[in-house]
Amino acid sequence: MFLDKDIYLFDLDGTLLTIEVEEFLQHYFKALSVEFKDLCQNREEFIQALMQATKQMIKNQGQQTNRQVFMDKFSQLVGLAAADTEQLEVRFNNFYQNEFADLDQYFTIAREKPAAVINYLKNKGKRLVLATNPLFPPAGVKARLSWAGIDAADFELLTTYDNMSHAKPNPDYYREILTKIGAEPDDCLMIGNDPQEDGSATELGIELLLIEDFLIPRDKVDYPVSWQGSMAEFKRLIETKL
Ligand SMILES: [Mg+2]
């Protein structure tokens, strides 16, 4: 039975955190472009630079951290000198600790079930990994976890842009996690809402569970799914079987 696995890898956005990603991105980009309005002529230019630097992180093949890839590309696109890049990073970190952390006011977030699931698994002695696409600094990941009412300390690893050098859906992202936590695919379960980005874990032999409350439709993806249901059903499943 898949629930017997020792290590549970959880996606964040749309899985533990019940927000529509598109709606979230709109508020996120707006807040960012207000904060950094001095760097670009206009908001579109800024968002373009952000998107391109993010795409570069997603293509990262492991030579440097995602953070380095992002900073290099973003600085180049907005024409920053090296010293200014350091300053940029300080500003990004401040942003994620302050303005970003307040974005939850725009969303209705269902905290009860995901937080109960994490607590239950923790009490059962499961090892937990937050396998969120590592495109954010730690402050950005911890803020989103706190929106979900979940304590970052419950996870032995949070994947962030400064501790990873691959991103989803590259299966090497999951290999990098296994190396970091000293585990084999057969020890792990991946629980997510994206048949592609979370599903690519199955290329290594990690079993996939899909939480369908915010399921992302992917027509052309056919990764094997060991179980699929709502977060409420998943909560019932672990409470009866574990
Ligand atoms: Mg997701």
From TrEMBL:
Signal peptide (from-to): none
A Gene Ontology cellular-component term: cytosol
UniProt record, GO biological process: DNA repair
Coiled-coil stretches noted in the UniProt entry, renumbered to this chain: none
GO MF entries: phosphoglycolate phosphatase activity
InterPro entries per record: HAD-like_hydrolase_sf (IPR050155), HAD-like_sf (IPR036412), HAD-SF_hydro_IA (IPR006439), HAD_sf (IPR023214)
Protein name: FMN phosphatase YigB, HAD superfamily
